[in-house]
Amino acid sequence: MSTEQLSEKYLGVVGMSGMSVRQGDTAIAHGSGDVPVLATPQVIALAESATIAALLESMEQGETSVGIRVEFDHVSTASIGAEVRAIATCTKVENNRLTFEIEVHEQERLIARGLVIRAVVDRVSFLAKAAAQSLSHQ
Amino acid sequence: MAEAIQKIHTIRAEMVANVLSISVSVGELVTIGQTVLLLDSMKMEIPVLSEVSGKVIEIAVSPGEIIQEGDPLIMIEEQGK
Predict the structure, then answer these.
(1) pTM for this model (two decimals)
(2) For A40, which residue in chain B has the nearest alpha carbon?
């Protein structure tokens, strides 16, 4: 599919995801720190989840997308019990790569901001390649 | 006849942040190193200090606002050193 066709399908799509911060979402639980606040890897997972939600309606059968790059500013903390939401907007399409701008908020407060880039790939070819790599490790 | 030239100094955001509070008001005299704003960024409370002495002539942000790197925060009319 050409960049123009992909742009028509995906440019401007928006997705959201949300979570309540629990013990298992903290930096302590993730091993990414030693404080009981929302872990950065969990923020990125939430952001990626918002990108998946954005693509849900537009993906064709046989297509999938895979994360290939993230860039994030983790600006502020969110404590256990906080309700956090991520909004992802596809702002750029280049070849098979989709760039999403992400904002993560707790109410009005900015928790994180960044970019997630995903590549649109053929699901069967991708899984076949992954399986071949897995076999080569055995 | 020579006229006095007003020099306006703009304090800008160095990073994306939430504005927590503003410590000065328009018309107030501030000195170098005085805290003018408190930001929430890099998961910490970060004071923004005045880089000049002078009079606050404009405050471009409000508490709760999200600011981006480079955004103007406070304008100060510099006064004699």
Answers:
(1) 0.87
(2) B43
